[in-house]
Predict the 3D structure of the following.
Amino acid sequence: MSTSLRHKSVLVTGASKGIGKGIARVFAHHGAKVVIAARTAAEGEATATELSQAGGQVSFVAADVAQRADVQRLIATVCERHGGLDVLCANAGAFPACKLSDMTDEAWDGLFATNVRSLMLCVQAAIPALKASSAPRIVVTSSITGPITGYPGWSHYAATKAAQLGFLRTAAIELARDRITINAVLPGNILTEALVGMGETYLASTAACVPLGKLGTVEDIGHAAAFLASAEAGYITGQTLVVDGGQILPESPAALTA
Ligand code: NAP
C-alpha cells in the first residue's frame, strides 16, 4: 500500500454512490482527507457518514459540477476544510440511453454539459489550489465506451467519454508547467448499485463476456485512481488505464471459448 496519499486533500466528484463512492472509500482507506460531491444532499450525506463510520475522514458538499458557480464554491469549500487540494478525481457523469434516431439537441448538449463541461470546469477551478500542492494530481473517470468500444443507445455518451480524453491530452501539456499530472481510468462494466438492480440474469450474461469471468468492483476503479494519484505515478501524465477484466480484448465471442 502506498503511504503517499496519507493526509492528502482529495476531492471525488459524483461520489454519493457507484464508482465515485468506491474511489472515495479507497482514498479514505489510504488515510486521505476526502470530500465527496454530488447533487443529491441526502444521499451524499449518508455516504459520507457511512465512509466516516468505517474509519475514513470523509465529508460531503452538494454541487452540480456542470455549473461554474457550484464548482467554484466546491473547490473553495474543500480548500477551507482541508487547507488545500492535492488530488481531484473528476468522476461525476451520467449515461442516459438514447438511440440516434431519437436524439435531440437538448439530450446531446445536456450530456456534454454533465460529462465534458464539468471536467473542464473542475480542472480549471482546481488549478490554483493544485499549484500549491507538493504532488498535484487529477484523475478522470472516462470509459471504454467511446474511446475504445461502442454500444447502441450511447452515441452521445460515447462521444463525451472520448471527448474527455481529447481534453486530457492537451490539458496534460498545459498543466505540466505547474507539475500537475492528469490521467484517466477507463472502466469496463462495473458492479454499481444501478447495475445490481438489473438482476442476476443480466449480470451473469454480462460477466460471461469478460475474459476474467466477472464484473469489476467500484474498488477496482478506486485502486487504479489511487495509483495514478500516488507518488509512484508522478512521471505519468496524459495517459489512460483500462480497468475492464480484459473486456475489450476478444476479437469475437468465439475468442472466449476457443
Ligand atoms: P452512478 O452510480 O449513477 O453515480 C453517479 C454519481 O455522479 C452520483 O453520485 C451522482 O449523484 C453524481 N452526479 C451525476 N451528475 C452530477 C452532476 N451534474 N454534478 C454532480 N454530481 C453528479 O454512476 P457510476 O456508474 O458510478 O459512474 C460514475 C462514472 O463512471 C461516470 O463518469 C461514468 O461515465 C463512468 N463509468 C461507469 C461505468 C459503469 O460500469 N458503472 C463504466 C464506465 C465508466 P447526483 O445524481 O445526486 O448528482
